[in-house]
Amino acid sequence: MSYVSNELTVIIVLFEENDDLVISSLKNYQNFRVIIVDNGNNYNLKKKIEKKFDIQNYILNSKNVGFTKAANQAIKLCKTEYILSTNADCLIEEKGVLKLLDCRKNYKDCFITAPTFYDDNFNLAYNADYFEEKNIPKKILYLEGDICVDQVLGSAFLFKKKDIEDINFLDENFFMYFEDNYLCQIAKRKKKSVIQVFDVKAKHVHGKSKVKNIFKRTFIRHYHFTFDQLYYYYKIGLKDEKYNYLKKKIINYFIKMILNLIILRLNKSIYYFSLIKAFYDFNKLIKHISKT
Question: Which among 149, 179, 204 is the end of a domain?
Answer without folding.
Answer: 204
